[in-house]
Amino acid sequence: MTHHQVASTQAGTAEKILTGDRPTGQLHLGHFVGSLQQRVQLQHRYEQTILVADLQGLTDNGHRPNKVAENILNVVADYLAVGIDPLKTRICLQSAIPALAELAMYYANLVTVARLQRNPTVKNEIAGKGFGASIPAGFLTYPISQAADITAFKATLVPVGDDQLPMLEQTNEIVRKLNQIAGQEILVECKPLLSNMPRLPAPDGKQKMSKSMGNCIYLDSDDRAIARAVKSMYTDPNHLRVDDPGCVAGNVVFTYLDAFHPDPGYVAELKQQYEAGGLADGTTKQILTDCLQTLIAPIRAQRAVYMADKAQLVAILKQGSEQAQEEADAVLTQIKRAFGLKLF
Amino acid sequence: MTHHQVASTQAGTAEKILTGDRPTGQLHLGHFVGSLQQRVQLQHRYEQTILVADLQGLTDNGHRPNKVAENILNVVADYLAVGIDPLKTRICLQSAIPALAELAMYYANLVTVARLQRNPTVKNEIAGKGFGASIPAGFLTYPISQAADITAFKATLVPVGDDQLPMLEQTNEIVRKLNQIAGQEILVECKPLLSNMPRLPAPDGKQKMSKSMGNCIYLDSDDRAIARAVKSMYTDPNHLRVDDPGCVAGNVVFTYLDAFHPDPGYVAELKQQYEAGGLADGTTKQILTDCLQTLIAPIRAQRAVYMADKAQLVAILKQGSEQAQEEADAVLTQIKRAFGLKLF
Q1: Model ipTM?
Q2: Does residue A77 sit at the B interface (CB-CB below 8 Å)?
């Protein structure tokens, strides 16, 4: 059911994975197909750390910290509900790991302002967010903080979309500069773990599914909300009568069936029938609704159980963060020693 | 002997002072007259924290951390040698206080890149350092880090020269924004404690005394080095014969006598005599040499004692830093609580 390409690594090599989310909303089907499923798989093969990046969430929510704070446990519950196992995957909270902020202070001296401004990912995001001339310093510099997150755990594999590749280049530049100054290989370069799954479109087919658009199917959406979202999906506007031949490309219902239906052979048959004419949009939408309701029902149920015990969620996050701090602090100590700054 | 104006504060008010130095070299007579003497006085009246700002030192020495590392204990020894008392003044090391880096992460979201670029102090420094287009991100953002340093200790008075006033404005902007978002007065605004002592010129009279110019009289300079520096001092180029009237303004020897001679009445007499004619530069230079040698001899001796016991210097810095971390972490915790981010 997963469509991810896992980087070909030899069995037995100790790849370490760093991934995470900004807790600025609940996770949705876009995350499920884009990253969560992959993480559930990866945790069996690799040492995986998932960072709930609340400080990064603040970089464009500096004036509304509650938006970030409120979603931290939501995101942890989402992780657990889809099957991420805190015994296999370390789940930790960025703001609870002081060594990450400290590492970022050192790295900030190795990156020029011009280099940050040239970073294509940051450039696009700045344009998209409409900051105008009011770009928060924390936003411009978040690639430095992200480099701290990645290197603190000596991550070698970072799951990203191709739009995020410049972030990893930036990280590896810092790695090389710092190692050169330190005169030893303290930090480890990372490689991208590219997804070959295209971004899940929103039901209207126009943009990617996004929390801010209000068009998401969440991991706890109920059957009615799922049915409503599927009903609103963009299909083929020229497919006016059932008997007309329909177009599958750009038809959001089929994009979702490709992404979520457990039986690709059956989806292929449906496509053939749709293209030949004689398959109603109402029928394909019903099939998708059934499929998504079946997928989400157990996740929603699990999620409710986890959300009913927030103390447990906090305990998981606390334990993960303490381990993470220990590991990150060891890297920081190595850097301080190499720089001659570890006096006590 | 001090020429500093201590802000008029009511006796009994709990003013807190934050001050410090970038440890990029030994301290010299410019520091002595510009800040060290003042600190020795202030420690009897106020709660004073002196931060050895090694991380700030790295913002323009990112590629040569040893320059910073090597000078940390030098600076602490300088402090102790002039009479700063670690029982009265808390001396701490910036890199040993993780909460400072964490606070800076939060503050960075409340300051725009444009605002940092407009900061006159930073603008002048960037021009002076010849970074060209290669301004390290850590350098552009150091006012944010400095705001963290000041606010972490709830400092209300910050001794500065007037060129540093924009830094305090920047800090107070952050204070107001953060308090507004938090909905409570967590951070405290600071006031400048302006020195009315003009900057001590270098012996050549052309610029301020500066470590990088190689024209400093250090707090451990020996008698010969002092005599040599005084001998090289710029006087009145038109004062060719002893009997000629001389000019006191711009005459570095008199500037130093004003700054360091314990008897202002005697210096006034010398000036009169010099202006009338009949006082040789050799004589004024000898008087200044004697004065500076007398001033520095006990400091140099004390400094040697402290430098001979580096373990003690480290212990002082460690204790101060631990206290500072406790205090800074309390402020950080207040912010996290107000933002809803203190989950554990």
Answers
A1: 0.93
A2: no
